[in-house]
Amino acid sequence: MLLTNATLYTKDFRFAPNSHICVKDDRIAAVVTNADATEDPATALGEETIDAHGLLVIPGLVDLHFHGSVGHDFMEGTEEALDAIAKYQAKSGILAICPATMTMSEEDITKACANARDYQNKDDGAELVGINMEGPFVSPKKVGAQNPKFVHAPDVDFFRRCQKASGNKIKLMAIAPEEPNALETIAALKDEVLSSIAHTCASYDIATKAIAAGATHLTHLYNAMPGLAHRDPGPIAAGSDAAWCEAEIICDGVHIQPGAVRAAFRLFGPERMILISDSMMAVGLDDGEYELGGQPVHVKGRLATLASGTIAGSATNLFDCMKTACLQMGLPIETVIRCATYNPARSIKVLEDYGTIEPNKKASLIVMDREFNIKGILLRGKWLVKNF
Questions:
Q1: By its UniProt entry, which InterPro entries does this protein fall under (predicted)?
Q2: Which of these, 94, 104, 114, 252, is most buried using a 10 Å CB contact count?
Q3: In whole numbers, what is the pLDDT of the chain averaged over residues?
Q4: Residue 16 pLDDT > 90, yes or no?
Q5: Torsion over CA: 106, 207, 172, 304 (sign)
Q6: In this predicted model, what pLDDT tens digit does every residue of 335-373 receive, in sequence order?
Q7: What confidence score (pLDDT) does residue 312 get?
Q8: Of 63, 278, 320, 353, catalytic
Q9: Rounded to 5°, angle at Cα 257 from 199 and 223
Q10: Residues 222-247 pLDDT 10s
């Protein structure tokens, strides 16, 4: 298969017109950018062609923090749930997924981890590339939509039991660094998992110590953490100060005001920001009553809330968050694509297969226009959607 005449999103985060992508089986075989318009790419590469003139071709998105889709949650711990989630995500352009646990019992967490370990990717589903362990090592004062009943002090052995159950699929571990034994846990696990400052009341000083110990990631920036105050700027400033620290952000138009989103990108720079959806089981379905971490959630439009009014994840997928970040919040299109593809793939160490369009990587691509209308989705070398 040869995609020709595309405007290709390149590995150095720009667009290259008149580009061609050759796909063989489930991999990218060759990429030619800024090709001579007089040359026939089919002759040059010996392939039948599909013309993508006037369209953008970008890498499949990578969501490293979300909980569910279409009425299912990762914590169900069943093949049926993962099948439904992966199928919805793939049709939405999210072609590599790293679903998140919730603060629940160790039994429930290890069940979900074991289910992910044994899961076999399906032909019409996004690839499961990892697990985000969000909880139970959170602050009881900043649980957000996590279940306070199951908050647990940071515990190396607890993590390792979950990691063993997962077959080493856990890529991220959320942790509140001010909690007892948190800094020691971060330091002990720094070579085993990416620790992420999350659901925390940490001061600037404590957050700085956590980053020095190995916590080089911030979970859903602004949400469930202290704000950026001028005398105690908290974990946001601590993360910004550390050039090696990265930050997730939810751009669904509900969680964070657009001015604060733009400020975060100025603080961290596009090279350190990661777009996430934090979506829960309602995404892809109508308004109504749902569940997250064993707690009832009411969904209306893009707003998902607990009975207390606390925002409970999002009802927006990552592609729509990326679209909102660009078209409604004013971030450059090159930036939002990078932050939904390359940056998350780098963070969870799946750049060998995802994140950029280069030879030998998975042929998982999105064909779209500049208004973010999806025209085609190529999933591991096969068309899942093709409307051009």
A1: Amidohydro-rel, GlcNAc_6-P_deAcase, Metal-dep_hydrolase_composite, Metal_Hydrolase
A2: 94
A3: 95
A4: yes
A5: positive
A6: 999 999 999 999 999 999 999 999 999 999 999 999 999
A7: 86
A8: 278
A9: 0
A10: 999 999 999 999 999 999 999 999 99
Q: Tell whether 224 is in a known binding site.
A: yes
Which of 110, 109, 108, 120 has its CA nearest to residue 82? 120
Tokens of 12: 């150095």
Q: Does the annotation flag 312 for ligand binding?
A: yes
197 assigned binding-site residue: no
Residues 6+ apart with CB under 8 A from 261: 249, 251, 325, 329, 331
| Structure token digits, residue 95 | 């072609």
Structure tokens at 70: 């279409």
Give residues with Cβ within 8 angstroms of 199, minimum separation 6: 135, 138, 139, 142, 143, 144, 146, 174, 176, 219, 224, 225
29 among annotated binding-site residues: no
**CA 190 – CA 251 distance, rounded (Å):** 29
Residue 296, H or E segment: strand 295-300
Task: Read off the pLDDT of residues 163-193 as tens digits, 9 standing for 90 and up.
Answer: 999 999 999 999 999 999 999 999 999 999 9
Alpha carbons 144 and 255: distance in angstroms, whole number: 12
Residue 293 binned pLDDT confidence (cut-offs 50, 70, 90): confident
Amino acid at 115: N
Q: According to DSSP H, which parts of 242-317 are helical?
A: 258-268
Q: What is the mean pLDDT of residues 106-114?
A: 98
- How much is the pLDDT for 38? 58
Reading the block at residue 370, the tokens are 């500049």
According to the annotation, is 249 in a ligand binding site?
no
Rg of the chain over all Cα atoms, to the nearest angstrom: 20
Q: Say which DSSP state 153 is in.
A: -
Q: What is the DSSP string of 164-183?
A: HHHTS-EEEEEE-TTSTTHH
For this structure, is 83 an active site residue? no
| Letter string b/e over residues 29-57, b meaning 16 or more CB atoms within 10 A of that residue's CB | bbbbbebeeeeebeeebebebbebeebbb
Answer yes or no: is 231 a known binding residue: yes
Question: Is 5 labeled as ligand-binding?
Answer: no
CB within 8 Å of 135: residues ≥ 6 apart: 101, 102, 103, 104, 146, 150, 151, 174, 199, 293
CB 12, CB 29: distance < 8 Å: no
Q: Is 84 annotated as a binding residue?
A: no
